[in-house]
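Propose amino acids for all 282 sites.
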């Protein structure tokens, strides 16, 4: 699933290609793409058409288009969702789910989604912050993010540090990739108890998360396949800089110990057993 850097790359691309333009027509090709809009396909198409795009904003892994009249078009990319810029009236892509045409006759904006786990909803009057994502915490790249408050929140939880990092109500935008990379940089094992970690250690983990996601954003994010691309279809290159995630049996860049992989929450955790030793059991 795209994480903060990948979604932010998409946001910046949409910002460039949509702000100031008036949507003339919306065509939904697959009902699943608007399943979050409970009034259905026809209502979604009619509600969005005619609006002008004022801004594109993000909270964690969610995007929303700020529309005139104070309305919002909220979107989540799911596992494989993409916003792509194409020529007006271009041939239909096999995975095209929604197309936005504009009154200026310029490029369309297409929403592609191979696995159809992503989707959108029109939310009248919710341009400031859509209600469905109001519970999501700020992310480390947000100007209003409070590092000290997040440290305190993590230390107050009775869980493992990686579970806390993935909890979007604690800190948003961090997924499996950047959690593993942050913990590797901070030399903290993913199974460490949040209650047992000192304030400086938790702070180091969160600062590492900000650093690694900033670096990933600078190169377009992490693209393992063609599902993770920007609005022009270009892949990110941070995969080349990954130290832990996906590096099973490869040497740790710090100490040359083989990176280990373990099952975690129906996913995987990658870590260096020497740099990130597991806590001792009683």
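Proposal:
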């Amino acid at each position: 699933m795209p994480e903060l850097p990948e979604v932010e790359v998409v946001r910046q691309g949409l910002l460039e290609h949509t702000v100031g333009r008036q949507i003339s027509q919306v065509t939904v090709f697959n009902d699943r793409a608007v399943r979050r809009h409970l009034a259905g396909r026809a209502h979604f198409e009619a509600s969005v058409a005619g609006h002008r795009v004022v801004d594109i904003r993000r909270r964690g892994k969610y995007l929303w288009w700020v529309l005139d009249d104070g309305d919002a078009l909220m979107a989540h990319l799911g596992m494989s969702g993409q916003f792509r810029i194409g020529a007006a009236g271009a041939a239909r892509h096999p995975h095209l789910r929604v197309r936005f045409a504009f009154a200026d006759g310029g490029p369309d904006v297409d929403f592609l989604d191979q696995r159809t786990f992503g989707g959108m909803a029109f939310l009248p009057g919710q341009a400031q912050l859509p209600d469905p994502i109001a519970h999501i915490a700020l992310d480390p790249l947000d100007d209003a993010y409070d590092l000290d408050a997040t440290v305190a929140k993590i230390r107050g939880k009775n869980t493992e540090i990686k579970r806390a990092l993935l909890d979007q109500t604690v800190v948003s935008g961090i997924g499996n990739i950047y959690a593993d990379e942050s913990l590797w940089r901070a030399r903290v094992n993913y199974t460490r108890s949040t209650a047992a970690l000192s304030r400086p250690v938790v702070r180091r983990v969160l600062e590492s998360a900000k650093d690694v996601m900033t670096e990933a954003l600078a190169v377009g994010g992490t693209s393992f396949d063609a599902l993770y691309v920007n609005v022009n279809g270009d892949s990110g290159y941070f995969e080349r800089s990954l130290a832990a995630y996906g590096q099973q049996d490869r040497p740790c860049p710090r100490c040359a110990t083989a990176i280990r992989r373990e099952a975690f929450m129906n996913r995987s955790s990658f870590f260096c057993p020497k740099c990130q030793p597991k806590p001792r059991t009683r």
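The beta strands are 23-28, 53-59, 62-67, 72-76, 81-86, 96-102, 108-113, 119-123, 260-264, 267-271. The chain has a mean pLDDT of 93.
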